[in-house]
Specification:
There is one protein chain. Among the domains are: 3-71, Beta-grasp domain (Ubiquitin-like (UB roll), Roll); 98-251 and 437-444, 2-Layer Sandwich (Nucleotidyltransferase, domain 5), CATH 3.30.420.480. By secondary structure, it is of the alpha/beta class. It has helices at 23-29, 138-172, 188-195, 241-250, 286-289, 330-342, 367-391, 405-410, 413-418, 436-446, 448-459, 472-478; strands at 3-9, 13-18, 48-51, 56-58, 68-71, 98-104, 108-115, 121-128, 181-186, 215-218, 228-231, 259-264, 268-273, 278-283, 304-311, 314-319, 327-328, 356-360, 363-366, 400-404, 430-434, 461-463. The longest helix is centred in the N-terminal third of the chain and has 35 residues, at 138-172. Bound molecules: FE2/S2 (inorganic) cluster.
């Protein structure tokens, strides 16, 4: 079979591939980690590239037939949230000199190197999850694993974790072999794919994990470090160790007042409760808020509109990196929708005047985008109401709303309340807590007692399967509109 050389620009990255492979596969082979939210099915349009003759094509749908120069859209660096606010001080048990904490997100990976003696953070590093090149959402990756691609997915994330380990060790002036403990948090699918556990049960009702319990493994089986590798437990198929990490970091079972934790990542995971009782649920909210199903949607990286406001009859916006706007990230989508509601351009049913709104040359919101957002926000709102009902509490009794994760950190609470994703009565009670999942991983990396505490928290948190509740559909449909709430 004939071989061709593909040269990717900018960067002059060359790769030789056989005739017939797609340009997306060539990018993957070149180590460029392309964005492919639909997993190369040709439906998302996010893999668009420009060929040397000026034609724009979808990389996943274009087979290599000759030597080619391919222009990628401007390289974007990930804006990855690594800061956080935790209720717990780190008290290491002093068994290890150095410990590592990992937060394995569907989109990003973060590593923190800690002193096992003082708990101080010595270095941190992050990168995009290289599994993204096989699909943005967990379902496409699970599908790939079920079709025999599990080892490819596992290998690429392990390689990335090893590179992050080298990076943080280098920054701290040690070698990876000096590290003798690690802890990892991640959603259930990331957990299973990392540890080579069959993710099949996550795709069929009742969507429970193959493995829920906390695991301690020999670290050298996974990474170039020694000692123990701790994986936090999962609560359910779509409420994983990352949520448990948030519970550990916030000392959720010590809270006196009714508190709602919302972590919007690929899914929207929520926990409502206090020291007496805690209930978790998950909603399929992520894809719209992470940009995958939005026509101009993108991650929160350079070029994304992240904030929009409506004042004195004018709409203004902010672009990450201050350059030209090329798309809308989740917080921008919420803000823009709230602004258009204020402006009367979107009505209470979600109808967008004229079917589309052009914010600027690179960014247009379509009617379909608004509908996608309505589905996401309706699911979150219905989840909040049903959690409260199951606990026998009124939504207004919730005293604090912890917003964890990157999206929670950047979104404007007023916009989330204006569109009704969060009940407006809670607007003044919203507290962004940053990467609480990563904070939980840090605690468990330096302390066996914290890891045991994560087991207790997972075991004592009930799970509510929203889809199994007959009233979910009604609540969800009621929550789709944008009517101004006065409660
Ligand atoms: S259209 Fe090519 S990856 Fe989605």
């Amino acid at each position: 079979m004939e071989q061709f050389t593909i040269t990717f620009q900018p960067g002059d990255v060359r790769v030789t591939v056989p005739e017939g492979v797609t340009l997306l596969q060539a990018q993957i082979q070149a180590g460029l980690h392309p964005d492919a939210p639909c997993g190369g099915r040709g439906s998302c349009g996010k893999c668009r590239v420009t060929l040397g003759d000026g034609r724009e094509v979808l990389a996943c749908q274009t087979a290599v037939e000759r030597d080619e120069t391919v222009f990628l859209s401007q390289a974007r660096s990930a804006q990855i949230l690594t800061g956080s606010r935790s209720a717990a001080d780190i008290h290491p048990d002093g068994r290890d000199r150095y410990a590592l904490a990992f937060d394995i997100g569907t989109t990003t990976l973060a590593a923190y190197l800690l002193s096992g003696e003082t708990g101080a953070q010595l270095a941190q590093a992050s990168c995009l999850n290289p599994q993204s090149q096989y699909g943005a959402d967990v379902i496409s990756r699970i599908q790939m694993a079920l079709e025999g691609g599990g080892e490819t997915l596992r290998r690429c994330v392990l390689d990335a974790l090893a590179a992050l380990t080298e990076e943080v060790a280098g920054k701290a002036g040690i070698v990876p072999g000096d590290i003798t403990a690690a802890a990892v948090v991640g959603n259930t699918a990331m957990h299973h794919l990392l540890l080579g556990i069959d993710p099949g049960p996550l795709t069929i009702p009742p969507y429970m994990p193959r493995v829920s319990q906390a695991m301690e493994l020999p670290a050298e089986d996974l990474l170039p470090i020694r000692g123990v590798f701790r994986a936090l437990p999962n609560i359910a198929g779509f409420v994983g160790g990352d949520t448990v990490g948030c519970l550990v970091a916030t000392r959720f079972d010590h809270l006196e007042e009714l508190t709602l934790l919302i972590d919007i990542g690929t899914n929207g995971e929520m926990v409502l409760g206090d020291r007496r009782r805690r209930i978790a649920c998950s909603t399929a909210a992520g894809p719209a808020l992470e940009g995958a199903k939005i026509s101009c949607g993108m991650r929160g990286v350079a070029g994304a509109v992240d904030h929009v406001s409506w004042r004195d009859g004018e709409i203004s916006y902010h672009v990450i990196g201050e350059g030209e706007a090329v798309g809308l990230c989740g917080s921008g989508l919420l803000d823009l929708t709230a602004a258009l509601l204020e402006a009367g351009i979107i009505d209470e049913t979600g109808r967008l005047e004229g079917g589309a709104y052009r914010l600027c040359p690179g960014v247009t919101l379509t009617q379909k985008d608004v509908r996608e957002l309505q589905l996401a926000k309706g699911a979150i709102r219905a989840g909040i109401e049903l959690l409260a009902r199951t606990l026998g509490a009124a939504v207004a009794e919730i005293r604090t709303v912890y917003l964890a994760g990157a999206f929670g950190n950047y979104m404007t609470p007023a916009a989330a309340c204006r569109i009704g994703m969060i009940p407006p009565v809670l607007e003044g009670r919203v507290v962004p807590i940053g990467n609480a999942a990563g904070e939980g991983a840090k605690l468990c990396a330096v302390s066996r007692a914290e890891f045991d505490y994560s087991r207790e928290l997972a075991a004592s948190t009930e799970f509510l399967e929203l889809a199994s509740l007959p009233e979910f559909q009604d609540r969800f449909i009621d929550a789709l509109g944008f009517s101004e709430e006065t409660e």
